[in-house]
Amino acid sequence: MSAAILAVLAVAVAFGDQRRITVVLARPGGGEEAASTVREVALTFDAEPARARIEAALRVEPPVAGQIRWRGRTLAYVFAGPLEPGSYRFWLPAGEYGRGGERLEATFEMAFTVRAPGIALVVAAGKQQELVAVRPGAEPVVVAAAPRIVDYAVSPDGMQVAVVVADAEGWGGLVLAPADGGSARSLVQSPEMTIGGVAWSPDGSAMVVVRRDRLPSGELGVPRTWLLRIGGEFAGEIDTGGSPSLNPAWSPDGQQLAYISPSDARVVVTNLGTGETREVGQPRGGWPAWSPDSRLVAFESALRTGSASPLQPVRVVSLDGALDRSFGEAGEVRSAPRLLDGETLLSLRRVYAEGRAATDLVFESIRDGSLLRAVQLVPGSAVVLHWDLDATGDRVAFSVIVEGAPQVVIVDLVSGEREVLALAGERPKWLP
Questions:
Q1: What is the pLDDT of residues 265-287, one digit of tens each?
Q2: How far is the C-alpha of 143 from the C-alpha of 344, rounded, in Å?
Q3: Torsion sign, CA atoms 295, 301, 304, 307
Q4: What is the C-alpha end-to-end distance of the chain, expressed in Å?
Q5: Domains of the chain (ranges plus CATH)?
Q6: Which helix (H) or strand (E) holds 67?
Q7: Alpha-carbon separation of residue 421 from 68, 117, 303, 312 (angstroms)
Q8: C-alpha pair distances (Å), 179 with each of 59, 143, 175, 373, 401
């Protein structure tokens, strides 16, 4: 789970003496480097391809499990799962690959390196806060700094971070910064509005932000979610009726947006194409979460009227109405849900009962509500503030307050090994 979100290496292969090559995930000023969230390599031919001959000749090194899919003249090699860090090479030997006898005169080759995942976190730096990127074997890099880091979101390809920064008076703007350091670019900074939250579209072409406009009286209006183009231009409100909207979450297919409507305490899903909206439940707080197939929405739920569910459950609802299930028991607080797939819910479970106080990460079956697995994150009454799962689903990073200071801890869910980052901080998110 990841982001949730798939990046693509796209290459154009031309027959004849000329070749046009474009690597979408090329690093400026460096070699080709990709995130582990890359899911396919796409080769587009400028003449009708002889598909069988191309499939037989294409080579991948080292071998990577995947499937070949054709989209017109484009061959997509779709990986079966996240790529391991390391170097990869795709090549097509020179040969006759066009239906009309067209030849590829020289061997086409593309090489790229998948970097090891890192962690982004917010740290205190004197009177400021810094968003810092930490990668294995490298020194921490400051991505952005401001009196306050309000919110941030990593782009789907892992190359950029949209950061909501606030000045000393709390007025928020939006900057776009390279994930591994470099000059940030201001996207939104205006005395007429303040920004309070941000989320990327799955294809990385746009964002949604929560903004509050200054009214003629000088006071601030209600928070509303707006669509923002990558260049910094606003494209319109998500709720065209002008109602307040908070904590937007984009569906993985890019077609829908779930958000909280605070004025009437609803979780609302809007179809971005048709404008159709539907209510899926009453939230307690937090952010809605989508399943990878964009069919299910999970959220921290208020107690449903007439329900026997616990006071602070997590609820999972399918958009077709076939599923509506609450998770949790009396004496527990459930929060921060994620949907690993269409079958598995992950959430934080805090238990305060005498003799067994702890915070666990629990895995539960969406189909029947059964507990599949529980991993204790912290014992006692310490509160886990934020958590994130890496692209492989094998490691979790979370922040917790220990003796008044924030810590970021990484737990390997396979081996059980734990690592406390040397850099004290909070709000960790994986950098692909």
A1: 999 999 999 999 999 999 998 99
A2: 34
A3: positive
A4: 11
A5: 7-114 (2.60.40.3710)
A6: strand 66-71
A7: 40, 14, 37, 31
A8: 31, 6, 12, 33, 26
| Residue 31 DSSP code | -
Q: Residue 113 forms beta bridges with which residues?
A: 33, 87
Long-range contacts of 147-151 (CB under 8 A, 24+ apart): 149/122, 149/427, 150/195, 150/196, 150/197, 151/196, 151/197, 151/198
The whole-angstrom separation of Cα 187 and Cα 200 is 14
pLDDT of residue 15: 60
Average pLDDT, the chain: 88
Check whether 256 has a pLDDT greater than 50: yes
CB atoms near residue 28 (< 10 Å): 7
* Amino acid letter, 386: H
Q: How far apart are CA 96 and CA 48, in angstroms?
A: 12
CA–CA gap between residue 262 and residue 212 (Å, rounded): 14
Closest CA to 268 of 257, 254, 253: 257
Residue given tokens 């910064």 in the structure block: 177
User: In one letter, which amino acid is 124?
Assistant: A
Spatial separation of the C-alpha atoms in residues 303 and 403, rounded to whole Å: 33
Nearest to 6 by CA among 254, 298, 208, 290: 254
**Residue 145 β-bridge partners:** 130
Q: pTM value?
A: 0.84
On the CB side of 226, CA atoms within 13 Å amount to 22
Number of helices and strands in the chain (H, E): 1, 38
For residue 273, give the DSSP letter: T
Question: What is the distance between the alpha carbons of residues 397 and 429, in angstroms, rounded to a whole number?
Answer: 7
Extract the runs of DSSP E, i.e. beta strands, from 168-323.
172-178, 185-188, 193-200, 206-213, 224-229, 234-237, 246-250, 256-261, 266-271, 277-281, 283-290, 296-301, 314-318
